[in-house]
Each structure stands twice: as structure tokens, then as C-alpha cells.
Automatic annotation (TrEMBL):
The keyword Signal applies. Coiled coil: none annotated. The keyword Phosphoprotein does not apply. This is Family with sequence similarity 180 member A. InterPro entries: FAM180 (IPR029170). Keywords: Signal. Transmembrane segments: none annotated. Residues 1-17 form the signal peptide. It comes from Anolis carolinensis. It comes from the Eukaryota. Pfam families: FAM180.
Length: 177
């Protein structure tokens, strides 16, 4: 009877060990798997697939973003906004990254307990969320400004931890962005 209990515990442990990491990874940005747009190509969008994509993302961010009153983010530069990658950027910014303090805090809590290194798309989305919180902190006043700044710091610490973890795991990390 004792060996059956041990065997059952081992099976439970193995099942939990193989299921838990997938669950944790899927839950960082659940909205990426249920994007509101009609195109299947935009399901789980990722911007950075090459160095050119990273450079283009940098151009999007430098080209000034416009955030409307209803929190819709768009690229101001019409030429950049007309690019195919701008559609994925728009989807990420408007449908995937969290925009409310409770959602951003939830993300920060998940990131603080995240086992292992972030996937490239989760890293990218966390950086975009951090950019958004920096914008909101700059535009807010008083207690709201402090709340947004605190969220920014938590995201920064999570990304710093991930970068430290990734550099200790792989000496030549290929993390872009």
C-alpha cells in the first residue's frame, strides 16, 4: 500500500510539473489568445522576429504614440501607421497589453512568481506595458501618478529579474528589444 501511495504522488507531481508551466505561461497575457480582430493572423501577435522588426518597433515608439481619451493607442506618423507591422502593433497595444491598474498589478504579480525565463513575446508585451505605464505616469497627477509610477517600477523589476535570469542561463542570450 505504501508503494502505491508513493507511485500516486510521483504521478501527481509529474502531471503537475508538466501542466503548471504551460498554465503560467498562458496566463501572462490571456487576451493575446482571444484577440478581438477578425483575422486569424492576429491571434497571438508578435512584433519582433528579426532585428529589422525591433528597429521598426523602436521607430513606432519614437514616432510618437497617440493615446485617445478612450485609451486607444495609435502611431501618429501616417507613413509608419500604414505599414503591415503597424497592424500587429495596434493589436498588441489595444487588445493585448493590460491598461488598468488592477490588470497591470495582476501581471506584475504573475511575473514576480514566474518560473524560468520569459518567452520572447511575453517579454515584448511586458516592455510595451511598461511603456504604457510610463506614459500614464507622466500624464497623471497626485495619487494616480504615484500608483502608475509604482506599477512601472514593479514591471521594471520583473524585466530586470528576467534579464538577469536569462543571462545566467544562457551566456549568449539572443533576447532582442
Amino acid at each position: 500500500m505504501c508503494w502505491k501511495t508513493v507511485l500516486l504522488l510521483l504521478l501527481y507531481y509529474n502531471a503537475h510539473a508538466t501542466v503548471a508551466p504551460r498554465w503560467n505561461r498562458a496566463m501572462l497575457f490571456p487576451s493575446a489568445h482571444r484577440v478581438k480582430r477578425s483575422s486569424a493572423a492576429l491571434l497571438n501577435p508578435v512584433l519582433q522576429k528579426s532585428q529589422d522588426d525591433v528597429d521598426l518597433l523602436f521607430e513606432f515608439l519614437l514616432g510618437e504614440l497617440e493615446i485617445s481619451d478612450d485609451l486607444k493607442i495609435s502611431v501618429r506618423d501616417e507613413e509608419l501607421a500604414s505599414m503591415r507591422k503597424a497592424m500587429a502593433f495596434d493589436t498588441l497595444c489595444n487588445d493585448v497589453i493590460p491598461k488598468s491598474i488592477p490588470d497591470i498589478r495582476r501581471l506584475s504579480a504573475r511575473l514576480s512568481g514566474y518560473p524560468g525565463m520569459l518567452k520572447k513575446e511575453d517579454f515584448e508585451r511586458t516592455v510595451l506595458t511598461m511603456v504604457y505605464t510610463a506614459y500614464r505616469a507622466a500624464k497623471s497627477q497626485g495619487h494616480q501618478k504615484d500608483t502608475w509610477a509604482e506599477s512601472f517600477v514593479h514591471l521594471y523589476k520583473a524585466l530586470k529579474h528576467d534579464l538577469m535570469f536569462s543571462s545566467s542561463q544562457t551566456p549568449s542570450s539572443q533576447r532582442t528589444l
